[in-house]
Amino acid sequence: MLFVHRIFHLTQWLKYLILGEICVLGMIEGLAIGMLNPAVDQLAQEFGISPQVATYHSLAQGLVGAITPLVVVPFANVYGHRLIFLVCTALTAIVSAASAQSTSFAMLIVLRGLTGLSLTNSVLGMGVIPCLFFVHQRGRMMGLYVLISFSGTHLAPAVRSKLNVTFPLYS
To answer: What CATH number corresponds to the domain at position 112?
Structure first.
């Protein structure tokens, strides 16, 4: 708890380093969510379903992603943001790897829904910036955070398309 009272006394480069870390976590979250969307046709073919039904994995991610910050943020306020960042990122990596090995579409929906935990990183990231920076710096830093963290969602289809060419279906 002593660290919270001394956070404004951090050096400027350390504040920028922390900002860079939460930006990268936000970008990874966008990549984790958008990576599978360009492979909808391959998913439909793999599981023998229509492409419209194959897009339900995004719905599951959105639902879990909308609910988990409501549950997790109070824990972050009590136990600290760092712990929740690490746990959500680790669970997202584990569940994403497990979803690549899914054998049924129901299993894929459940596992991709659990990758919605990564949306907690973007919500927590927006809460860390006011704790780090003074009032006159917050707008610029929040803009930088939004620019970098949400660019993962835009980069995901390009990255996935390149992976589709190199490694078919589950890369």
So the answer is: 1.20.1250.20
